[in-house]
Specification:
This protein is mainly α. The protein has 7 helices and 2 strands. The chain has one domain. Helix content is 66%, strand content 5%. It has a two-stranded antiparallel sheet with strand order 1-2.
Amino acid sequence: MASKKELKELKLTDVKDEVEKYKNVEIYQFENGSTITFAPLFSPSKVKNLVTELHERFGSANEKGIDLQPIITEYAHFLAIKYFTSLGSQISDKLENQLVELEFLIDGGYFDEIVNEVFSKKEIAKIWTQLGNRIGEIEVHAKLNKQVLDTVASLEIENKDLFEQIKNFTSESK
């Protein structure tokens, strides 16, 4: 354990100074001379927002009959482009438009270059880690929900006579 002399109380000003690193941007120049501004470090809050959007888009895609499963990797990387590059302000919030924009980036040859050359593998891994955490949370919630429903069903079966008595009592008192 550190001596009392080495201990330092955490202060919000120190935290604020530490997160300044996420505001840094760099410029990448493509072979054709065009440039893109990007965040070399992905902030945890933006990664969380990205994963939330990915989750929401999957839900809305299912409702619209669109299967995003075959392109989950590309779509997650596309959202990284949205959240961590200067292209983000030009990317639509509508799923159908985003899929067209994703195709433009792929066919234009920019997608792979941005994902593989502009973004570091360590930063991309943050997205997959957060996504794995979100999937784990969803699975836990689903299991808990099933346990609650099973318990309620079990109680209804075990206490069927009691429920009938209550139902009859409420009917008689009307």
